[in-house]
Amino acid sequence: MTAIDWLILALRIFIPLGVILTVVPMLGWAERRGAGLIQDRPGPNRVGPYGLLQLPVDAVKFFFKEDVIPTNADKVLYVLAPAIAVFSALTTFAVIPYGANLPAAGRDIPLIGADLSIGVLYVFALTSLSVYGIVLAGWASNNKFSLMGGLRSSAQIISYELAMTTAAAGVILSSASLRLPEIVASQERLWFGFLPRWNVVPQFLGFLVFFISAFAETNRIPFDLPEADAELVGGYHTEYSAMKFAMFMMAEYVNIMIACALTVTLYFGGWSLPGFHPSGVVGAILSILIFSVKTLFFVLVFIWVRWTLPRFRYDQLMRIGWKALLPLALLNLLWVAGLVAMGWL
Amino acid sequence: MTMSRLVFDAAAAMAILFAALMVVHPHPVKSVLAVVVSFFGLAVCYVMLSAPFIAAIQVIVYAGAILVLFLFVLMLLNVGQEAPERDPRPIQRWLSAAALVVFAALLLALLRAHGGSAPAALDPVSADVAPLARLLFSRYLLPFEALSILLLAALVGAFVLAQREKSS
């Protein structure tokens, strides 16, 4: 590999990373303005135009706040926990294709961090590791509320991971590949000349299970039991302050974006659009835009749901995961397997 | 020494080091975390041997699910630091000595068989997902299905045991 190849690889990795880290504070703003909109109040509107500078100001505040480490906390794990949370959130994006090939510098550059042959499994491997960030935070804080939050989270993530992976298995089955770019490519054409060949059409059930599980995996309302403030103070991050607390918030928003990007890639054709054949630099940029708009739509759905639904009770949460979502995911898998066996997919 | 060999050796050393740490650490929660790191090192070894599928399964199943359950149980029971052991029984000493001899013999045999050279890397194609799946569903179909029945039996067994606890 020449120097320019290394440069291109670095840009492929760091530009999306930079974009994600820039969008995260904006999501925080969107969430609070969205809350205001839904609850018929203004939301943050004092700092900057439309309150847009509220989040940068908050970030600065986080940096200057006192960073408290409880006396009886396990210091190493206490510091490590938020780092694990952010690490597993940020590295997941590496295998998600965010655009069509970009012709530049005499090369056809694929717009993806790393095109692994096990793409989807890589995502699930890293999300299954993200639970350690929360569990360790809860345990290392040496606080019973934190511990309860961490325990709830580990039980919840394991339960919903099953439904989520089983739903995704339907997509893997129909596109016969674990590679995310190939899953996107398999959804490019049309059915009957008008219906986009998106996986959501034959696998609407799978999409529902996947998307609902994504709420549980990212600890969002209505599944935010690990940090239920009414009963657990703040759950696993009760003892965290300053930048370490901000890192948990950051991990949450990055996880939401990853979950939405993955939903778009698996079920809504990723960066592709029926009738759109990207060519050249303009095509590549357009494909990135399409991918961003689709992803942002689902991110807004996440915010919308947060301010609409109340929180489930813990036993309800477990019942939904095991007795509703998992059987539905299995049913979806059976349905897709039948379609594939009949040669209709 | 190539770059990939360096990564493999580092990961292998990490796996062994943390496996040893798991045995000697007095705190059960830390022991489980040591196993997590050890399994992660093992997964990196698999990747360097061009078996990414096995690596992913290693992380998803072992590091991501089974060990989280271990942690879950340890935290639920709130297990603290292990109390310093009393004097081991005589039989334990004899058994550990015997285990050490067996382990040393195995290690020697392994080193002699390979002459200290690294085993050749697998053909990258044959270790990928599709060929692996083909093998699993053709040549190894019977053991594969037998394993799934074994797992199902374990599942049913666990369920029966849990139900009995509840009724008593």
Instruction: Determine the oligomeric state from the structure.
Output: heterodimer
Q: How much strand of chain A?
A: under 5%
Number of strands of chain B: 0
Element pattern of chain A in H and E = HHHEEHHHEEHHHHH
Q: Which two chains share the most extensive interface?
A: A-B, 25 and 21 residues
How many runs of DSSP E, i.e. beta strands of chain A?
4
- How can the largest sheet of chain A be summarized? 2 strands, antiparallel
How far do the termini of chain A sit from each other?
A: 40 Å
Task: Record keyword descriptors for this entry.
heterodimer; A: 345 residues; mainly alpha; two-stranded antiparallel sheet; 11 helices; 4 strands; 65% helix; B: 168 residues
Q: How would you describe the overall organization of this protein?
A:
The complex is a heterodimer of chains A (345) and B (168). Chain A is mainly α. Chain A is 65% helix and 4% strand. Chain A has helices at 3-38, 54-64, 75-91, 119-140, 144-175, 180-185, 204-217, 229-232, 242-267, 280-306, 314-342, and strands at 99-104, 107-111, 190-191, 195-196. Chain A has a two-stranded antiparallel sheet with strand order 1-2. In chain A, strand 1 and strand 2 form a beta hairpin. In chain A, helix 1 crosses helix 2. The radius of gyration of chain A is 21 Å and the shape is globular. The mean pLDDT of chain A is 85. Chain B has 168 residues and is mostly helical. Helices cover 77% and strands 0% of the residues of chain B. Chain B has six helices and no strands. In chain B, helix 1 (3-24) runs antiparallel to helix 2 (28-48). The termini of chain B are far apart. The interface between A and B is medium-sized, with 25 and 21 residues.
